[in-house]
Amino acid sequence: MEGVSKRYGGVRALENASLAIGAGRIHAILGENGAGKSTLIKILSGVVRPDAGHIALDDAEVAFDSPAAAIRAGIVCIFQELSLVPDLSVADNIAISNPPLRFGLIDRQAQRRIAEAALERAGATDIHPMALIKDLPLSRRQMVEIAKALARKPRILILDEATSALTAADVAKVFVVLKRLREEGLALLYISHRMHEIAELADECTVFRNGSNVATYRAGTKSDGEVVEMMIGRELSHVFPQKPPPREETGPPLLEVTRLGWSDRLRDISFHARAGEIVGLGGLDGQGQRELLLALFGVLRGVSGEIRVAGRAVSPSSPHAAKSLGVGMALIPEDRKTEGLMLPMSVSENLSFAALERVTRGGVIDRAHEAKLVAKMIELLAIRTASPDVQAGALSGGNQQKVVIAKWLMAEPRIILLNDPTRGIDVATKQEIYQLLRRLADSGAAIVFYTTDYAELIGCCDRALVLYDGAIRRELVGDEITERALISSALNIGDGPNGEGRRP
Amino acid sequence: MSDWRYVFGQNRATLLAFIFFVVMFAIYASNHPAGFSANVVQTAANKGVLLALVAMAQTFVVITAGIDLSVGGVFVLTNCLASWIVIGTAPAAALGVAGVLLTGLACGALNGLIVIVGRLQPIVTTIATAAIFYGLALILRPTPGGDVYGPLADAFTGRVFAVLPASLMSLGAVVVVVWIPYARSEVGRAAYAVGSSEQAAYMSGAPVARAKFVAYVLSGLAASLGGLFLTFVTYSGEASAATGGSYTLYSIAAVVLGGVSLYGGSGSAIGAIFGALMFRTIGDLLFVFNLDPLWQPLFQGLVLLAAVSLGAARLFQVRNRLELMP
Predict the structure, then answer these.
(1) ipTM value
(2) Among all residues of chain A, which has the CA nearest to that of B322?
(3) Per the CB 3.0–4.6 Å rule, which of A175, A358, B24, B116 could disulfide with B281?
(4) More confident residue, A9 or A351
(5) In B, what residues contact A, Cβ < 8 A?
(6) Topology of the domain comprising A253-328+417-496
């Protein structure tokens, strides 16, 4: 592919990117969050169309308008978010796009044979072809996903973090399979954040940064340190408010988490956040940051470990309990359109929604009092809206995000959890949000701030916790928060000059 | 063999519906004043098959995670149409039957087009088309009346070999000719996939739009078979809003009793058929025990609620509360 670009609204996801993959090679793609890796895969597998550029297969130009078209051309992708149908059996899923037919009907015996052969090729003979996907654990599903891809006889196989849920034994089996496929002449595109996997598998590596390919090199010719160096280097254009000097530590912290665990997604998480502190959560996307915030906010069931607020143990059983007086938590969610706002309702209704009990007298909403508080919030956050009665959905993305934040500020929380609040909003609004966060911290709130943008961790946070695979990999304090330290701990490698000190 | 464990596990809901129905019907028949006779079975079958066909129509759409509130409308419309055109000589009646079934197909195709091309929600679409179908039925039959080709009606509502009810035989034939090939076809498989996870189905390259369209078309066909059969039973056509409405609601109840998930992706029309027969038997049970028929809706409601609660028990295991909110 050559010169491929894609924009989402004003955001450039891919800018003039080029990539060449040869048959019988394993090509690894590296890059930090937002470098354009997922957009690249989506274009290759026919999920989105590029705005510009060419894709050629065997020197013939191709364009895919659906995943089905890409599959017909021999490009098969194993997605990170599994593409299996939960209510169908393993065999049904493996043969879903092209089931064997006999007299126009699906030939179940033939389908069974195909599924058994594919499972064997993937090294997953322990999976029964008639089991339903929804009854299988995640690691087995991922093996089915791999078997399904193999059954399609691909020419180009794309693996997007395809080993993230696998056990070490499975990974070893999958690697044997992938190496065999390479010998059979397939082209493999391997996206992973696990450096040791890439070192073992890849023939070539390409590093992506800011939506473009910045370097391609033969595997093994660059050290981990050099690779990190290539991933660094995006312009830091935001202006961040001054960080205050560290405060003296007095009394118990406002939020203290001890050995928190949930399912197999969060492991042994301990940290604290003091009043006046902004604690950043970093790491690559999907390492448990979202689950951690949801666990604190009472959304998840079966959370182990202890949460203390101002020294008192709490176990919020719902967002309603988490925002209550004794706890005083607020969560600014990831997706403002579905979890943050009621888009068809007015700005005013949205703003007062999390603090309705404060404007309610005897079960009835006191409209005058509500209007007063709403006006104060609109002024405080400089929300640009023609009137408080405008539909929230009619505002710009940045102003919508301000409404979500203001809505929670009205509940006067002590602990503010933020899940990537600046994603997809304009630079000016971002800076207003940074200043607001600092003001809130100064006035005594404890802030836990998950962001996929390293610049925000560096510029905004007093401390940063880097998560990897559901656990805290590293804590960085003050000046230790650098792009190099963030990226290398996000990739779970050491940050020495030559990449020494890598941990298994 | 471990294969049987999976076969059993995946058809458990259908099997349960079958067992519940058999038990209920045995209680009913053994307490019937006339005893377990061919006559009792025939009467019960003719009543049950009507709802079974409409429930089957509902199943096609529910499997794709949609809902079809126009099945009762198609049922009534095709009943009224049949009372006009399935008359006269044998060849004329045969043409009439074809016309009735084509009308059902067309009604289903209309629903499918609106849902797929127009991207409207199934529930709104089918409420609107149900009113349209009922309106057409009223134009056809402002007052109850009409006729039907007698020999055909008697053949389908009578008995074969003096014992087997012909209505059940024809229901079985519909299952063998329509449902089983459908469930084993590529488009049927895709319908289950769409209902289970439309995104995964799309990403896997399954024919999503075609699967939905065929589901609505077959729903229309099955509902029109029901309408045709109603004409055979009543010898007339009637544009009754009460009939249309109650058959639509009961079809949803039957589908749930038969183990078809309203979230889509699992269940079978065979289960829904037993669900329908069960629902009918609940009403009849009150009759044989000499209970006041006024208790019937209350009793049916309680049974339905109990069945749905059993199906929802798995939700207690969900660990992320956001997943409880689709």
Answers:
(1) 0.76
(2) A299
(3) B24
(4) A351
(5) 2-3, 6-7, 9-10, 181, 184-186, 189-190, 192-193, 195-197, 199-207, 261, 265-266, 318-322
(6) Rossmann fold (3.40.50)
